[in-house]
């Protein structure tokens, strides 16, 4: 049993999780540290990054923090070089940083659309390009893109986000195709609806104390009958970052409590 579990270890690996000052990225970075990796995270707000550093330390995780806007190629190149000096070549990249704008499509400006695409799709391209040379030189690497239900489904007001996450699914498959021969695996994780700051507006209780209609809707569309928690993503994230998944490539692992396979509970 021990040998099988060893294949899930991240001992000796350098992992970079983007946008990990809180939320899903924070939980994944913490889990990677506990799985033995030397972990680097970034954020683009100095105050939130400093708070995250203290929180990681409070939880006993030695996580290095880097101020970097993932949409800025020069900042990304500088960050990856500094991580190389501090921790070593990046073995595992999780493209987690993301944003969403919930605006009806005909009311959304092209610049608002581009802003979402920039963070959710162009940045994973920039980040992956920055770490791939080091992975190729080392002869192995793992890139994990945080996709979404919106990589498969649409809904009102999230046109830019769905376009980005749909593109991220295909970028995942393309990186897998282009670099699989270099022993680099690129897969996605598609979280369902997870309780984080990003989805907080969809869960706010109504003035009368009743559940938000969207909260009720998501629970009726989820066989698990609940929102996901950030911790629900850590096992899949460790699996895809470890040697246990060395023959898994170009896949999106949906961690959604069953949403994508379910027609929905009768009201
Ligand atoms: P979140 O709570 O909004 O956190 C997003 C993180 O990304 C924050 O740390 C944020 O830092 C950082 N970030 C945003 N723009 C950045 C930039 N330009 N450069 C560097 N960091 C940046 O989001 P979340 O719910 O944890 O989601 C994390 C990822 O999972 C996102 O890609 C999201 O699309 C995806 N996802 C979320 C859900 C869900 O239900 N929550 C489901 C499926 C997929 P700042 O606050 O400093 O900007
Ligand atoms: C929304 C939500 C979703 C989640 C997630 C679902 O407005 O529909 O924010 O997009 O963030 O991506 O997987």
In which order are the strands of the major sheet placed?
A: 3-2-1-4-5-6-7
CA gyration radius, whole angstroms = 18 Å
Main structural class: alpha/beta
SS strand fraction = 5-15%
Q: Percentage of helical residues? A: 40-55%
Number of E strands: 7
Bound small molecules, which ones? NADP nicotinamide-adenine-dinucleotide phosphate, D-gluconic acid
Major sheet characteristics: 7 strands, parallel
Mean pLDDT over the full residue set = 97
- Could you state the order of secondary-structure elements as H and E? HEHEHEHEHEHEHHE
Structure annotation, total helices:
8
Poorly predicted spans = none
**Shape designation:** globular
Question: Explain this structure to me?
Answer:
This protein is α/β, with parallel strands linked by helices. Helix content is 42%, strand content 14%. It has eight helices and seven strands; from the N terminus they run H-E-H-E-H-E-H-E-H-E-H-E-H-H-E. Helix 2 links the parallel strand 1 and strand 2. Helix 5 packs parallel to helix 6. NADP nicotinamide-adenine-dinucleotide phosphate binds next to helix 2 and strand 2.
């Amino acid at each position: 049993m021990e040998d099988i579990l060893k294949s899930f270890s991240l001992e000796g690996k350098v992992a970079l999780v983007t946008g990990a000052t809180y939320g899903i990225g924070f939980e994944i970075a913490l889990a990677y540290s506990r799985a033995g990796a030397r972990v680097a995270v970034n954020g683009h707000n100095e105050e939130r990054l400093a708070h995250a550093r203290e929180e990681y330390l409070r939880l006993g995780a030695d996580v290095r923090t880097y101020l970097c806007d993932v949409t800025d190629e020069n900042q990304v190149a500088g960050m990856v070089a500094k991580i190389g000096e501090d921790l070593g070549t990046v073995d595992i990249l999780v493209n987690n940083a993301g944003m969403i704008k919930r605006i009806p499509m005909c009311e959304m400006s092209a610049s608002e659309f581009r802003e979402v695409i920039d963070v959710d799709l162009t940045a994973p391209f920039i980040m992956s390009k920055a770490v791939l040379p080091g992975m190729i030189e080392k002869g192995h690497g793992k890139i994990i893109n945080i996709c979404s239900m919106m990589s498969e489904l649409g809904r009102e007001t999230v046109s830019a986000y769905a376009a980005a996450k749909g593109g991220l699914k295909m970028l995942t498959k393309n990186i897998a195709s282009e670099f699989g021969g270099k022993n680099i695996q690129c897969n996605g994780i598609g979280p369902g609806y997870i309780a984080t700051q990003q989805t907080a507006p969809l869960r706010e209780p109504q003035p009368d104390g009743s559940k938000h209609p969207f909260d009720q809707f998501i629970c009726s569309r989820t066989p698990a009958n609940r929102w996901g928690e950030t911790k629900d993503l850590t096992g899949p994230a460790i699996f895809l970052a470890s040697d246990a998944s060395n023959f898994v490539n170009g896949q999106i692992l949906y961690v959604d409590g069953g949403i994508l396979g379910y027609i929905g509970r009768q009201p």
